[in-house]
Amino acid sequence: MEQLTNPRVRDEIGEIALVPPDERVSGPGASYLMAAFTHINPKGSRFSDGTFGVYYAAAAMETAIAETVFHFEAFARDGADPPRSEDMRVLVGTVAAEFEDAAALPVAQRRAILDSESYAASQSYAKKRRAAAANGIAYPSVRHEGGHCLGAFRPRAVGIPHQERHLKYRWNGERVDRFFDYARDEWIDL
After folding, report:
1. CB within 8 A of 60, min separation 6: which ones?
2. Angle at the Cα of 169 (from 154 to 94), degrees rounded to 5?
3. For the sheet containing 100-101, what is the strand order?
4. CA distances (Å), origin 182, targets 67, 90, 170, 171
């Protein structure tokens, strides 16, 4: 009852009804994973039209940084944010499920799905693949050449991640120009 009526608790767990009970995961670190499916962006993302959540991951930290910096910058620009810093968590996990391979699609379809400016084709493709019970989509990063990413449609398609370290992104009012790596105790210019 408290989960349905307490705004603080509702905000913490998000819209849990978006995840079918048999797809939910629990335990240490599960909230990192479940948040992607219960706190959805109404504007959507590459593989979501805003009606369902997707958990995004990258195979390498450099790729994850390139991808998240791009999206953080877009968010800060939309809000006309003044210069500020934001702590980010580096999450590490495993993937054992099979994913659709966007790199194997015909060239024209792959280009449309991996468009760096428009998510129209990728959202349409993902909605169909999700409805067909796909676990998600593996794809080459469009923000980090040579990088590999995935978008999972179901929490059980990926392992529960653990926090590996923190980074601090510095938004200078126009872009993220550097980040602080707490594990290395140093600033790194972008």
Report:
1. 147, 148
2. 30
3. 55-58, 148-152, 136-140, 100-101
4. 19, 11, 13, 17
Q: Under a CB-based contact definition with an 8 Å cutoff, are residues 159 and 94 in contact?
A: yes
Say if residues 47 and 137 touch (Cβ distance below 8 Å).
yes
Number of domains forming the structure of the chain: 1
The span from the CA of 174 to the CA of 190, in Å, is: 13
Q: Which of 178, 164, 153, 175 is nearest to 61 (CA)?
A: 164
| pLDDT tens-place string over residues 127-176 | 999 999 999 999 999 999 999 999 999 999 999 999 999 999 999 999 99
Residue 106: give the domain boundaries: 2-189
